Amino acid sequence: MLRVRSQNSVYEQEAKFVQDRITGVEKHFAELCTIFAAFTRKAARLRDKSDELAKVIQVYGDSETINRSMSTGLANFSATLSVVGDYRDAEVQRLDAKVIAPLSQYAIICKHARDDVKNTFAARDREFTRRRQLDKVRERNPRNRQMISQAESELMKASVEVSRVVKGLEEQINSFERRKLHDLKSVLLDFVTIELSFHTKALELMTKAYQDIVSIDEIKDLEDFQIARGEMNAEFRETMRAPDSVTRLDTVNRTSFRHAYSLMNLANRFCNTDSVQTGFTNSSESVQVEEYADSTEETESESIREKPVRTRHKSM
């Protein structure tokens, strides 16, 4: 009995050890899968933003008509960024296929390994049960060879099943550990290789992009701008010459109007001298008229004073 209990404790320790290994692999591989998936999503977003940047630069380069070297440099720079985006897209696809996919499979792999462990320990439990039954039969019916032999045959079958399952479990656990080590190493090496490949190409293309920007001739583009601006200024001066003739015509009209106005003033002055002379001849008559007017006003005032004044009552 003590031997059975000791075997049971050994089985429990071994079961706990195997279960802890499977649980640790499942946990850490799930965390690796999550973080690599987030890394890949960030790379995909950076790829999309790189494509948008290349498109904006291309539109700017196509719209530029004066700075020709800048237009050419922006077009080449946009094309280089597009190629970088293509390599980044390849990076995303490779990460998804060679890193995330193998890590995501370990949820199923760990589940199968846990089921195998459960089956193994279920077979051991059946063996332990058959052994206890045999011991009980021997204690209760020591002379019943038929029941004892039947219990011994069932125990033998359970033991064979346990040995088979245990051997298969050991092979499966070793295979699980071997596959885990190989897959983890392979995944990390693939990740490093993918990143090295991308960054090598990106370094080469970014060097070309640097040369595309350096090739922009600032002095030549500034000269082209000044030439275009000079042509526009010449056209502007041509358009501004027509109003000068109009202003000259206005000044001529104003001076002629001033001369005519001065002549009219001279004519009016001569006319005023003639009116002064006629005024002196008619002065005696005007005096007599004024005196007559005063006398009539006095008589009217005297008649008004003689009449009584009537007051008006306000109507309520």
From TrEMBL:
Keywords: Cell projection, Cilium biogenesis/degradation, Cytoplasm, Cytoskeleton. Its main location: other. It is found in: Cell projection, Cilium; Cytoplasm, Cytoskeleton. Pfam families: FAM92 (PF06730). It comes from Ooceraea biroi. GO terms for cellular component: ciliary basal body; ciliary transition zone. GO terms for biological process: cilium assembly. Coiled coil: none annotated. This is Protein FAM92A1. Belongs to the CIBAR family. Residues 287-316 are annotated as: Disordered. Residues 291-301 have a biased composition (Acidic residues).
